[in-house]
Amino acid sequence: MGLKKFLMIAVVAFIPGDAFAHKNHHHSEPPQAPTPQSQEALLGRINELYKFNVKQIFQKKCFDCHSQNTQYPWYYKIPGAKQLIDGDIEEAKEHLDFSNDFPFGGHGAPSEDLE
Fold it and tell me: Which position among 3, 16, 94, 105 has the lowest Cβ density within 10 Å, counted as fewest Cβ atoms?
């Protein structure tokens, strides 16, 4: 299952069933912003689903550059290669860092990561 599909399922799982077809919703009422507690609970549930369904894939394919758990290649100790690899990893973690699960570190907001 791809990350985008997984995250879409995770978000949809938190939409109450009566949200569809406008049940119990009056158009004259302004939309309510999620409370910090409900948003924190949603992010926590997404993190649980991420750890169960997606994290193993990211560990195999992404963690070398996007986490603190880098498995360096054999040529890392060759002069010049170390500096190039370290620079690439530093830049990768600035964009997206999987070290501490979801919400991921980096310069994006959790909603941007889900998109």
Answer: 16
* Residue 17 reports pLDDT greater than 50: no
Query: 104 falls in which pLDDT band (50, 70, 90)?
Result: confident
Burial of 62 (0-12, 13-18, 19+ CB in 10 A): middle
pLDDT confidence band for 2 (50 / 70 / 90) = low
103 upstream amide cis, omega within 30 of 0 = yes
Q: Among 52, 65, 49, which Cα is nearest to 97's? A: 65
Q: Would you say residue 22 has pLDDT above 50?
A: no
Angle between helices 3-12 and 36-53 (to 10 degrees): 140
CA angle 61, 14, 38 (to 5 degrees): 100
Contacts 24+ apart (CB under 8 A), 105-108: none
pTM of this prediction? 0.60
Tokens (6 digits) for 11: 């978000």
Rg of the chain over Cα atoms, rounded to whole angstroms, equals 19
